[in-house]
Amino acid sequence: MNDTGPDTLVFEDVAISFEQGRRVLDGLSAQVSTRELTFIAGASGSGKSVLCRLAVGLLKPEAGNVTLFGERVDTQPERTLVSLRRRAPYLVQGPALLDWRTLRENVRLADPKAPEEAVETALEKVGLKEWADRLPPELGPGAKKRAAIARALVLKPRYLLLDEPTTGLDRRAAMQVEAVLASLKAQGLGALVVSHDYRQLREIADRVLVVAKGRNAYLGSPEGFLKSPAPELRTLTAPFMEGVTDG
Ligand SMILES: Nc1ncnc2c1ncn2[C@@H]1O[C@H](COP(=O)(O)OP(=O)(O)OP(=O)(O)O)[C@@H](O)[C@H]1O
Q1: Is the CB of 195 under 6 A from ligand 1?
Q2: Strand arrangement, sheet containing 23-33
Q3: Overall average pLDDT of the 160-188 stretch
């Protein structure tokens, strides 16, 4: 089925369950490009975050394969997974910055050996260069989120995984995060983004993967998704349909 080339993330027949044996993922297959922005949509509890954790070996599937950059993830030992996670950092919802350290120091924590220039470049890429000497409590939630992205960028990653990067942000802050993701994508750095933000999905996603009933219910363009979403997402996507054209 799959091209497991160096710029791909591939899930093949992946299954995983937790307590009470409920299968969260049940034979999900999908292939995405690590140079694109792929949004994962799906009802709450459908397994979107689980998919991210499987992608970087934080969880192991009970069945199936996961391949990132052409490397099998599910069979890799922890010691090499650490290096894989530097190439594909997974940013969880909270920005987890140290409040008593400046932004520059927070970013440096990701890689204490990184040259000063790499730290400055990372902050510049997220529009926070002028804020390098400030402390996190001085920043709004959107800037904190961008700082967390800068901390990942200092690792010089090849792919990013972001769990709900704009949840809780106002529109302006969400659009700033969105601009950062679009600009990183233009520089060849794609991301897997778990999101309930369908406005943002419509603006910047290259592809949308819908997880429903443990499977890949849709993988395609954002327009196609918004035109015929999974039934359980219909009321959520309806407000964003305006202007979505056929063809
Ligand atoms: N470590 C775990 N132990 C037990 N159950 C888990 C674990 N991780 C996930 N689950 C369960 O798996 C299901 C999917 O979780 P996941 O966090 O991937 O959902 P999600 O689609 O990201 O949801 P949301 O949109 O609400 O964040 C949930 O029912 C959750 O309770």
Answers
A1: no
A2: 23-33, 8-17, 63-68, 71-72
A3: 94
Our answer on whether the CB atom of 146 is closer than 6 Å to any ligand 1 atom is no
**19 CB less than 6 Å from ligand 1?**
yes
Distances (CA, A) of 16 to 8, 74, 131, 156: 21, 12, 42, 31
Q: How far apart are the CA of 92 and the centre of ligand 1, in A?
A: 13
Q: What is the pTM of this model?
A: 0.91
Contact 161, 55 (CB under 8 A): yes
Indicate the range of 78-92, 173-187, 224-238 predicted with least confidence.
224-238
Residue 29, SS3 per DSSP: strand
- d(Cα 85, Cα 148) in Å, to the nearest integer? 15
Report yes or no for ipTM above 0.90.
yes
